[in-house]
Amino acid sequence: MDRRxxxxxxxxxxxxxxxxAWAPRRPPGAAGRLKQSVSRWPFAQIPLxxxxxxxxxxxxxxxxxxxxADWPIVTEHGLVVxxxxxxxxxxxxxxxxxxxxxxxxxxxxxxxxxxxxxxAGVPSVIAMxxxxxxxxxxxxxxxxxxGLSRIAPLAEQHAVTICVELLNSAVNHPDYQGDxxxxxxxxxxxxxxxxxxxxxxxxxxxxxxxxxxxxxxxHIADIGHFHTGGVPGRHELDDSQELxxxxxxxxxxxxxxxxxxxxxxxxTRDPLTSLREAVTTCTx
Length: 284
Prior knowledge:
284 residues; TIM Barrel; 11 helices; 14% strand
């Protein structure tokens, strides 16, 4: 399931539970050693202001994946927009830095967004590697390095991190090229900027390669942001899925990671109860 396919599932989960779900309840010690946030799209049926209040109360520090129009609402509730979108293009995932023909458009979008993000206190914006469409990894890596190197100075100037997302190509995003950590790491190290990092999506990388904790420990310097999600299905971080998120969260915290760990799962039950449980699971 992906961000666009999730809407019907989220709607079903919300129906009949709104009054109870939106009531604020704080799990004890929710802050912990990690800055936890949550992606907006799986919870889009909850009005944003209500969602902000609930997130703040359960100990979340921010909300992920919002466009500029929503940034002021989040900040006025005392939260951080932990990751912003530079555009709302429907082909955002497929159209990435692996194709040089895309660079002029992608650079224009980021050039417009990065200063606005800095002014709004948004620490990072998302970018994509793009679909293969027959390209070799070597050519794609070279293209990504070239394109991201052009925008890195602006990101450094404004202290905004561009996070390029790793996604699975086996289940959710067929033909996506940035589907293994090694590919992403080669790009990030080739750019060599403290403001160009990986968005390491734990759900996606568990599907593609597993070995999550060891990979995180080995490449933490290349990672600027994390997403969570239960495997299989991209649902709750509970005992119905195969990952030990408590151990993963502890490993990330033990490395002294200062970025955000954002929950990005599609709830199958009461949405905010599931989110609250995920926050508790990852509070270490």
